Amino acid sequence: MSGQAAFTTAGMTAVEVVAANEALDRLLLEELGRADLARAPRSGGEWVAVEVAAHLAEFPHFFAAEIGRWRADPDAVVGRTHDDESRLAAVAAAWSDDPSRIPSRVGEAFSALAGALCRLSDGDIAAATRNIKYGEEPLSAFLDRYVVGHKAGHLEQLRALAAERDHPPRGEPVSDDDER
After folding, report:
1. What DSSP element (H or E) covers 138?
2. Residue 38 pLDDT greater than 70, yes or no
C-alpha cells in the first residue's frame, strides 16, 4: 500500500466505528468484484489486486484476534509489523489460490473483524493499548492504523489499480488479448 488514507476514529463512538468499518467493507467488496484478480505480478514489489485481496482475506482475522486478546488482557502488547510471517505468507499464497474464492474469503474475514468491533464499548475506543511498534496509544490509533484506516488505504489502492487497468500507460496492452 503506497500510503494509508487519512482516517481517524478518535472521537467516534463504538457504533460509529462499526458503521465506518461496514461501509468500507461494502466498498472494498464492490471494488474486488471489479478487480482483475488474474493479473501477473509487478516488478518492484508493488502489489496487484490479487495480492491486495489475499491481504484483505488475512489481516481482519489477525486484528480481530488482537482486539479479543487486548479485551481479555488490556496489558497485552498488540499489533504487528510489515515483516510479520503470517502477513507475508498470505500475500505469497495469493498466486496459488483460486481467484473465484477470494471474494468470499475476504467477506468471511470482514465478518470476523466486524464481530470483534461490535463487542467494543465507547470507553474501549479511547482506552490505552500497548502497540508492538508504537508503544502506548489509544485503541482508536490501533483501529486507524490496522482496521478502518488500513481498509481505506487498500480501497484507494484497489481503485488506483483499476484506473491503471482501465487506462494503461501508452504502449501497454489493456489485456492479454490485445497483445495478439
Report:
1. strand 135-138
2. yes
